Amino acid sequence: MDDTVVPQVAIEDMPLTFHDTEGPVVLLDVREDDEWRRGHAPGAQHIPMGDVPARMAEIDTEAQLFVVCHAGGRSQRVAQFLARNGYEPVNVTGGMLAWTGAGRPVVTDDGGPGTV
Predict the structure, then answer these.
(1) Among the options 41, 69, 92, 96, which is catalytic?
(2) What contacts 104, CB < 8 A, 6 or more positions away?
(3) What whole-number distance in Å separates Cα of residue 75 and Cα of residue 101?
(4) Closest Cα to residue 116, out of 101, 93, 96?
(5) In this structure, is the dihedral angle defined by the CA atoms of residues 88, 75, 109 and 113, taken in order, positive or negative?
(6) pTM for this one?
(7) Strand partners, 43
């Protein structure tokens, strides 16, 4: 069991957008491709959990980094991995289920309404 401690954040305590913040902010969605295609947070970056080790260079090391999945389990594991590799990630508790439960928008790649 990985005992790397990473901060947690509830949806209510996250920025409403990722464009109006001080400094860069990344919402890293680590769900699988089919989950992403059904719907994701506007402006999120998508790297499926299994691809993260090979694609870490794509993640902005200067950004405030939030990691999200469907319910919070996979994102916790990815956040622990990233923390062990020099990042300062924050796990989004409740994942995209909490995101949609809080009334936050979900879109598809073409900008249409999405689902979780």
Answers:
(1) 69
(2) 11, 16, 41
(3) 18
(4) 96
(5) negative
(6) 0.94
(7) none
CA distance 58 to 85: 14
Q: Map residue 79 onto helix, strand or coil.
A: helix
pLDDT tens digits, one per residue of 72-110: 999 999 999 999 999 999 999 999 999 999 999 999 999
Three-state DSSP state, 3? coil
Q: Over the stretch 19-69, which tens digit does the pLDDT of each residue have?
A: 656 778 899 999 999 999 999 999 999 999 999 999 999 999 989 999 999
Cβ proximity of 36 and 46 under 8 Å: yes
- C-alpha 38/C-alpha 34 separation (Å) is 6
**What pLDDT shows up at residue 14?**
87
Among residues 12, 9, 48, the alpha carbon closest in space to that of 32 is found at: 48
What residue type is 22 in one-letter code? E
Annotation says 69 is catalytic: yes
